[in-house]
Amino acid sequence: MSDISTQATEDYLKAIYELCADHDRASTGRIADLLGVTPASVTGMLQKLAEDDPPLLHYRKRRGAVLTPAGMEVALRTIRQHRLLERFLHDELGYSWDEVHEEAERLEHAISDELEERLVQLLDDPQHDPHGSPIPRRDLSVPRAATTRLSDLQPGQRGRPSAASTTAIPSCCAVWRAWD
Fold it and tell me: Fewest CB within 10 A of the end CB: N or C in the chain?
């Protein structure tokens, strides 16, 4: 990875991964909204990450960004560490499910491979974080759950929430507390 701040790089790659789950590419505007930065800052960072050796993403002006295999690896490793930390904070330290995200955001960049492995052992290799999102496996593959998005339900069709998007937190907290 380049000399660009590792924390900023991980934040950008994680955001692009999350945004690409719903779209082919992550737009500059959506990345800016998610990270709370200006679109101009996003453009500059995307250009730097695209020029990295190896490139961490492909970027085209007005087309957005998509992760390369190297960028996907960094994003998934960061997401794995983030979700393990959320599980630890919730299960072992008593944080509520809506408090763990922000704390894990601060800690995810400092976790070592050894600490990650000890968390896995302590938590008995958890499969999901407290929000119901799958935790990437050691090989960074991501288990797929057989779920339906609420937006895909037809009028009159019923469902039960099984996961909350961290991009929707804290806006979904009140709704989810009703089911907690």
Answer: C
